[in-house]
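Researcher: I need the complex structure. Ligand is MF3. Inputs:
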Amino acid sequence: MAQKIGRNDPCWCNSGRKYKVCHKAFDEKIQRIREEGHIVPEQGMIKTAEQIAGIRESAKINIAVLDYVAGQIKAGMSTEEIDRMVYEKTVRMGGVPATLHYQGFPKSACTSRNEQVCHGIPSEQDVLKDGDIINVDISTRLNGYYSDSSRMFCIGSVSPEKERLVRVAKECVEVGLKEVKPWGFLGDMGQAVHDHAFANGYTVVREIGGHGVGLEFHEDPWVSYNSTRGTEMLMAPGMVFTIEPMINMGRPEIYIDDANGWTAYTQDGLPSAQWEVQVLVTEDGYEILSY
Ligand code: MF3
Ligand code: CO
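Model: Output:
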């Protein structure tokens, strides 16, 4: 834990309660688990009630934008048009797209089709065709609070192979979510995701994972799916992170497009699918903030 805080001092979480009746037992429990040799969250990763309320408001916009895209997306539409819808809907609701100008990223959403794994850049040239699968990844900043989630969309009639990939990628997030509970480990979630992908004959991208999110767009911890039960960071109430495994139909290897420095593709050219959920660890399990 950070600095020494007295029993009768106000708690660091701004609840207004004395430390001894608020987070003291919580901090001691985390300290014990640290001493057992586990990776534990820093105090800054435990969101206060006020911060959670702010993140929830931001997440409402994220969900509304995804719902809006879901109602409009169709064959013949360019990914630039999707980007425009995302920008307009987000701004109308009082938010700002978090990807726009983020480390030089030029657009308001990531749109990743077929063998594009993630970080596809919307473009007028990129027109959706019947049979495509596409991930639309949305992130929002509102009053300094961040949200981040993504969905897959099937355009027109998609092959059974691609449809199954999209379905299993969603199931991977859902089996992972079931493992999100306080005093478990991120590796419990990671292994569940990985095992489900493998049981279905798929692979999971290793280089890109999920992340803490809320006060910044990308915070610690980094969230891997090539992890095993009982390893990686402890999950504690108040943590907010994403589960966003990229599930490949073929090999797990990827490369980044040299021309734009962002877009990841599968090396073997086979399709990849990804759903992303933003989740809060609660006292007795989890709460989905955006999906
Ligand atoms: N939403 C993506 C993520 O899950 C955003 C990546 S950063 C970008 O982390 F600049 F590429 F958008
Ligand atoms: Co993310």
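Model: Summary of the prediction. Residues 3 and 12 are 10 Å apart (CA to CA).
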